[in-house]
């Protein structure tokens, strides 16, 4: 039987994928005490990386918001893989979103809202979090967005 969070995800039409393996010498998530630290997740689905490019140079805010949402979905997939049950989530403490951007692009917060809005939709008040939205010159594999998380767990 699925827990409350997985039931809410189903209601939202979201099926969590199998978690993506790490692309280098790191682990996808580390459980330490009451906190789960989830490594940066890219917008990867069953077909691979969904959005490459740079905001301010051809990538739309709307497409990047969807990519950030997919990053958040992948964060929850990694969390479920470690925790076994997403109902152990007490709160998403912090998200950090990285947005591949030109020097004059300043709407990184709008992009990362794709991840933030999804966390609140999926988890309610447990999904409300502190956040950073950072513009960077480039991301792994040419991705437009990457999001990492710190999650308090029971």
Summarize this, please?
This protein is α+β, with helices and mostly antiparallel strands. It has helices spanning 4-11, 61-83, 108-123, and strands at residues 29-32, 35-41, 44-45, 48-49, 89-100, 130-136, 145-153.
Please give a structural write-up:
It is a single chain. With 154 residues, this protein is of the alpha+beta class. The chain has one domain (36-153): 2-Layer Sandwich (60s Ribosomal Protein L30, Chain: A), CATH 3.30.1330.40. It has 3 helices and 7 strands, in the order αββββαβαββ. The protein has helices at 4-11, 61-83, 108-123; strands at residues 29-32, 35-41, 44-45, 48-49, 89-100, 130-136, 145-153. Strands 1-2-7-5-6 form a 5-stranded mixed β-sheet. Strands 3-4 form a two-stranded antiparallel ribbon. Strand 3 (44-45) and strand 4 (48-49) form a beta hairpin. The longest helix has 23 residues, at 61-83. The two termini are 19 Å apart.
Keywords:
154 residues, 60s Ribosomal Protein L30, Chain: A, five-stranded mixed sheet, two-stranded antiparallel ribbon
Rg, please? 15 Å
So how many helices?
3
Low-confidence stretches: none
Distance between the termini: 19 Å
Write out the CATH superfamily name: RutC-like
Mean pLDDT, to the nearest integer, reads: 96
Write the layout of secondary structure elements.
Blueprint: H1 4-11, E1 29-32, E2 35-41, E3 44-45, E4 48-49, H2 61-83, E5 89-100, H3 108-123, E6 130-136, E7 145-153
Parallel strand pairs: 5-6
Antiparallel strand pairs: 1-2, 2-7, 3-4, 5-7
Protein name: Enamine deaminase RidA (YjgF/YER057c/UK114 family)
